[in-house]
């Protein structure tokens, strides 16, 4: 695993990495988006995906190819790269989607992996059981056992095949979070290579982003840092930043084409219908060269292609924006901005911080200044880390904790900045205490600062503390230990 995936940069649990694909002889930068290509329905030519959009990797369905009277012999003869005319990495799905939709498929894991190997797939997939959300624990556990047996088969087949094809180890378990973690731990212990979190499409279709966050976080707890994580079926630009912040590295999207067939237009704030648009809020080549009226007047095939191209442009633009945010260290600010686009996405963002301790393990200890832009920021990993460090700091004498200046009447004067709380003045120019805060702070920010003061006081019970504050709300002041004297600055 460590030989094929290497992380270059972290922010929260988001990372920029390099996935080496031996059979293709290529290395793909992650986060990576894989457009889904239907071998029978070509909305956009795969060669254009590479030349126009810079796509390094795509995914197609080997089960469809295997069952096709028109394409099976041809793809076995020519290979999947020649069939699709695509120069990059090709990943193939196994038919698990069809299994979820129709209840049964006529192929085994061993047969489909051998077929994927024979057609030249670079990354193959076994036939797992994509258990839907909210099923009984008994069903989730039974289907997980079947998936794990198939992973054993995939291991055996992989070792037997004379091929450098990578093989995925899907992580299932429905919405049973302990089963997801257990499944991920089992998958990570195999000799397989890439770890898709499966069975989440129903959650995404229902805008259940909070549940999606919990499912992915549980899976990540069972995987090592060198495990490339694929979030199956997640390709809408509005949720990419959130999914990357959780630690997902690879995404596949059929949304660009499926939505286009229904005249739907993707944006980073959600989905619009073409009929509702008087102006295009995008600067891609499709939107700058056409008006909504012009595209509405196109024939069905042309309209679908133009919308699909826009949908891909906006999705890849967001992916580049996410990567730059990781480089700058402000990915969580981008997630915060995207969360304002939909109430359910905001639920997902808030749930993300239920896992702050998990995010903190990979979050860099130094980066650009934190921007405190909403009440959700009080639970960011940086705040949690600072509070844990307060429990290790010792200070003696009579100490002023002040939002103002130094007072020589005290032995020491520490600064207080919500939501972080107190810190020695010598650390004022040290990340994350260079935080940029608004003048009108949320109540939660003051309450979190008070919790930081409590942590410091409890670690130093023999020290005398005074808080000099500017109009802190009563809800924050009541969280202070009784031993802290309080004075309000004019």
Automatic annotation (TrEMBL):
Cofactor binding summary note: Binds 1 zinc ion per subunit.
This protein's pathway: tRNA modification; archaeosine-tRNA biosynthesis
MF (Gene Ontology): pentosyltransferase activity; zinc ion binding
Pfam families: TGT
E.C. no: 2.4.2.48
Protein keywords: Glycosyltransferase, Metal-binding, Transferase, tRNA processing, Zinc
Keyword tRNA processing: yes
Protein name: tRNA-guanine(15) transglycosylase
UniProt source species: Halocatena marina
Taxonomy of the source species: Archaea, Methanobacteriati, Methanobacteriota, Stenosarchaea group, Halobacteria
């Amino acid at each position: 695993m460590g030989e094929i995936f290497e992380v270059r940069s972290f922010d929260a649990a988001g990372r920029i990495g390099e996935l080496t694909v031996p059979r293709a002889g290529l290395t793909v930068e992650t986060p990576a988006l894989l457009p889904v290509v239907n071998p029978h329905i070509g909305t956009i030519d795969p060669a254009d995906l590479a030349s126009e959009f810079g796509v390094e990797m795509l995914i197609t369905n080997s089960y469809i190819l295997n069952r096709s009277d028109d394409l099976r012999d041809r793809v076995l003869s020519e290979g999947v790269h020649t069939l699709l005319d695509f120069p990059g990495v090709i990943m193939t799905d196994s038919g698990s989607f069809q299994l979820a939709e129709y209840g049964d498929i006529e192929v085994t894991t061993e047969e489909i992996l051998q077929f994927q190997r024979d057609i030249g797939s670079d990354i193959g997939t076994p036939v797992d059981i994509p258990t839907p959300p909210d099923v009984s624990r008994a069903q989730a556990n039974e289907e997980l056992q079947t998936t794990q047996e198939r992973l054993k088969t995939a291991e055996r087949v992989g070792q037997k095949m004379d091929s450098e094809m990578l093989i995925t180890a899907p992580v299932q378990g429905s919405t049973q979070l302990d089963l997801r973690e257990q499944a991920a731990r089992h998958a990570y212990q195999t000799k397989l290579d890439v770890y898709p979190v499966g069975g989440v499409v129903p959650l995404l279709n229902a805008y259940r982003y909070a549940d999606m966050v919990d499912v992915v976080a549980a899976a990540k707890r069972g995987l090592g840092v060198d495990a490339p994580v694929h979030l199956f079926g997640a390709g809408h630009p509005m949720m990419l930043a959130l999914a990357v912040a959780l630690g997902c590295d690879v995404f596949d999207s059929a949304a660009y084409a499926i939505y286009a067939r229904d005249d739907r237009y993707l944006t980073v704030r959600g989905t619009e219908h073409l009929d509702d648009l008087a102006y295009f809020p995008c600067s891609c080549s499709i939107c700058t060269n056409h008006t909504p009226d012009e595209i509405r007047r196109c024939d069905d095939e042309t309209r679908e292609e133009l919308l699909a191209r826009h949908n891909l442009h906006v999705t890849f633009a967001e992916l580049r924006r996410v990567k730059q945010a990781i480089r700058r260290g402000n990915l969580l600010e981008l997630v915060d901005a995207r969360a304002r686009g939909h109430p359910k996405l905001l639920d997902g963002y808030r749930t993300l911080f239920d896992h702050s301790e998990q995010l903190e393990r990979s979050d860099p200890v130094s980066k650009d200044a934190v921007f405190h832009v909403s009440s959700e920021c009080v639970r960011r990993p940086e705040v949690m880390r600072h509070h844990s460090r307060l429990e290790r700091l010792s200070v003696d004498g009579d100490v002023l904790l002040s939002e103002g200046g130094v007072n020589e009447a005290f032995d020491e004067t520490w600064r207080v900045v919500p939501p972080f709380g107190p810190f020695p003045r010598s650390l004022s120019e040290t990340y994350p205490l260079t935080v940029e805060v608004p003048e009108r702070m949320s109540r939660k920010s003051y309450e979190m600062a008070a919790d930081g003061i409590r942590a410091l006081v409890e670690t130093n019970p023999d020290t005398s503390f005074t808080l000099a504050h500017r109009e802190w709300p009563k809800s924050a002041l009541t969280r202070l230990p009784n031993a802290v004297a309080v004075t309000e600055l004019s």
